[in-house]
Amino acid sequence: MSDSCNTCSAAGTCSGESCPPELTEAQKASRIGKVVAIMSGKGGVGKSSVTGMLAVSLRRQGYKVGILDADITGPSIPKIFGVKDKANVVPAGVIPPTSSSGIKIMSLNLMLENEDDPVIWRGPIIAQILNQFWTDVVWGELDYLLLDLPPGTGDVPITIFQSLPVDGLVVVTSPQQLANMVVRKAIKMAKKYDPRFYGLIENMAYVECPHCQERMEIFGKPQGQAEAARSEIPYLGELPVDPALATLSDAGKIEEYQSPAFDEIGRRLAEELKKNVTLNPSKLNLKM
Amino acid sequence: MSDSCNTCSAAGTCSGESCPPELTEAQKASRIGKVVAIMSGKGGVGKSSVTGMLAVSLRRQGYKVGILDADITGPSIPKIFGVKDKANVVPAGVIPPTSSSGIKIMSLNLMLENEDDPVIWRGPIIAQILNQFWTDVVWGELDYLLLDLPPGTGDVPITIFQSLPVDGLVVVTSPQQLANMVVRKAIKMAKKYDPRFYGLIENMAYVECPHCQERMEIFGKPQGQAEAARSEIPYLGELPVDPALATLSDAGKIEEYQSPAFDEIGRRLAEELKKNVTLNPSKLNLKM
Predict the structure, then answer these.
(1) Per-residue pLDDT, B8
(2) Residue B60 is part of a domain; what is its CATH number?
(3) Is A9 inside a domain boundary?
(4) What is the rounded CA–CA span in Å between residue A253 and residue A245?
(5) What is the pLDDT of residues A198-239, one digit of tens each?
(6) Distance between CA atoms of residues A89 and B14, nearest Å
(7) How many Cβ atoms from other residues are within 10 Å of residue B86's Cβ?
(8) Has residue B4 been placed in a domain?
(9) ipTM over cut 0.90
(10) Cα separation of A2 and B1, whole Å?
(11) What is the pLDDT, as a whole number, of residue B83?
(12) Which residues of B touch A123 (CB under 8 A)?
C-alpha cells in the first residue's frame, strides 16, 4: 500500500494491481443509477427533442433525471428547457441548473456568455470538456442520466464509449433511407463497444395536416420497426413531426408538451431501463 | 536558391522567404475556379440535399462541377447521386467517380466496402483525409467545387477553413429558432476566417398538403430572410420539405428532381459566384 491508499475510496478492496483514479468531490456527492446515451449518427432527426421528451417522460413517471448535453458544438438542451441560469461553480464542483420540473441539466451553452457563441475546438479539447462534465459536475442522486450525443462517429461518441460508464443506448432514426444508412453506421460503431440497446425510436415518421387530417409521410415510408428488427434492438415506437413540439421547444417549454404517442414510448423505455437497475458508485470513475 | 527550387512551380516568382509546398501530380492536373463550402452548423437541415441540388443547378446552367463530401463520418452525397463506383486510384492520384450528368464526386463512402460501415476516427485522422481529398484527387478542370460540410464547429470546419482555399460559403438553415441558434454559431465561427458569404438558403420552410394544398409551417415561422439580413448575407430563398426530393434522393436520382423554387435559388447563386471568377492554379496549394 502506498501513501495515497490512505485516502482512497477503494482502499482494502482493490486488487492492488491498478490504482483506480481518486473520486472527485463532485463524484463523491453523486449517485447515478443508469447512464443512457441517446444517439443517431445522423444530425437533425430530432435527437435532442427526443432526449428532452424522454427526460420529461421519465420525470413524469417519478424518476430523478439529469441530461448531459454532449453535443458540445451544437448544444440544444438548455434552450428547449428554457434554462438560462449559468452553471454555478462551487468548491465541490459545478452545480447543474434545474428545469422547472426538476431535471438537472449540464451543457456547454450554460457556460458561454451568449447562447450563439461558437466553440471552435478540435477533438482533444472537446473530449476533455466531456470528461469534466462527468467528473466535476455535482449530479447528486439520479435514477437516470441521459447523454445527448452529437451526430457522427467521431471524437465525442468515441470519448463517451471509451471513457464514460454508459449502460446502454437509445437510437433515434427517421424514415429517409439516407438517414437510415448513417444511423446504421452509428449502430455498428456502438456495437464495437458492446453496450446494451434499450430501444430504437423512429422520429419524423409523418405529419398530420391540421386542415384535412391527411397523414403525410414527408420523409418516405417509415422503416424503424424493420430497422430495429434488423439491428436486434427493441422497437419503442414512431413519432410525428409535430409543429406544437417545435413551438414549445423554441419557447423553452418542452415540459408542457403532451403527446400520447410519446407517453407510450416513455413507458416502454422505462420498462427496458428498469431491468437490472443498479446504484453503483464505482461507476463514477472514468474508465480511462 | 536551393536545389529543390529547380523543380518548383513557383521558382523565380517567390519571395524566397517561405517555400510553398510542391504541387502533387493530382493538383498539377486540376484547375478549380471557386471552392464553395456549404455549411449549416446544425445537422439535418438538409444541407447535403441542398449541396446536391446546387451542384445539379450549376451543372444545368452549363458549369463544370465537383462535390467534395467533407462529412467524413456521415457522408450522404454518393447515395443521393446513385454513385456506387469506388474511387479509382491511379499513379497520378484518385479519380473521382462521375454522376450521370457529369458531376465529379469524392466521398469517403466511395472508399468503404459497405456504405454503412462506420469510420470511428478522431479529428486528426479526419483532417488528414480531408487534406488528401484536396491534394490527391484528380479533379481536372472545374468551375466550382462544392464542399459539403458536416454539422458542428469542430475539427472538419476548422481544417477546411485553415487548410483549404475556400472562396466563400453558402449557409443552410431551417425555421426552428433552435436550428437558427446553432446556425448562428457556425456563421460566427466562419466570420473569424473572413470568407465571402455567397448566400443563405432557408430549407424545410413549409410542407404543402398533397390533399388540400394547405401550406404548413411544420418547424415554425420562416425567418431565413431576417437571419440573412441580420448576418449581412445575401438571401437566396426558401425551400419546402418535398417528399418527391426525399424519394428521388433515396433512389439515387436527385438529378431528376425538378423544382422552380430551386431553379431560382440556383440562378441567384450562380450570379453571386460569377462575380470575380478566377482560375487560379496557385490555390491548389494547401494553406498549411
Answers:
(1) 60
(2) 3.40.50.300
(3) no
(4) 9
(5) 999 999 999 998 889 999 999 999 999 999 999 999 999 999
(6) 53
(7) 13
(8) no
(9) no
(10) 62
(11) 97
(12) 122-124, 154-155
- Using DSSP's 3-state secondary structure scheme, residue A173 falls into strand
Q: What is the pLDDT of residues A255-273, one digit of tens each?
A: 999 999 999 999 999 999 9
Number of domains forming the structure of chain B? 1
Taking a C-beta distance cutoff of 8 angstroms, is the pair B287, B165 a contact? yes
Query: Does the residue B252 lie in any domain?
Result: yes
* d(C-alpha B79, C-alpha B103), whole Å: 14
Look up residue B4 and give its amino acid: S
Find the distance separating the first CA and the last CA of chain A, reported in whole Å: 22
C-alpha span between B177 and A99 (Å, rounded) = 19
Strand B168-173, strand A235-238: pairing:
unpaired
| E strand or H helix that includes residue A261 | helix A260-274
Ligand-binding annotation for B47, yes or no, is yes
Beta carbons of B157 and B72 less than 8 angstroms apart: no
Contact between B153 and A119 using a beta-carbon 8 Å cutoff: yes
Residue B140 grid cell: 481536372
- Cβ-Cβ pairs closer than 8 A, A with B, add up to 207
B87 domain-assigned: yes
Give SS3 for B159. Answer: helix
Considering only CB atoms, which chain A residues are within 8 Å of B45?
44
Nearest CA to B157 among A121, A111, A272? Answer: A121
Annotated binding-site residues of A for ATP read 41-48
- All residues of chain B having their beta carbon less than 8 Å from the beta carbon of residue A155 are 122-123, 154-155
What's the grid cell of residue B151? 454539422
* pLDDT in 10s for each residue of chain A, 288 residues: 555 566 565 666 666 566 667 899 999 999 999 999 999 988 889 999 999 999 999 999 999 999 999 999 999 999 999 999 999 999 999 999 999 999 999 999 999 999 999 999 999 999 999 999 999 999 999 999 999 999 999 899 999 999 999 999 999 999 988 888 999 999 999 999 988 999 999 999 999 988 899 999 999 999 999 999 999 999 999 999 999 999 999 999 999 999 999 999 999 999 999 986 544 444 554 553
Distance from CA of B96 to the nearest CA of A (A): 21
Q: Which helix (H) or strand (E) holds B188?
A: helix B177-191
The whole domain housing A42 covers 23-172+243-280
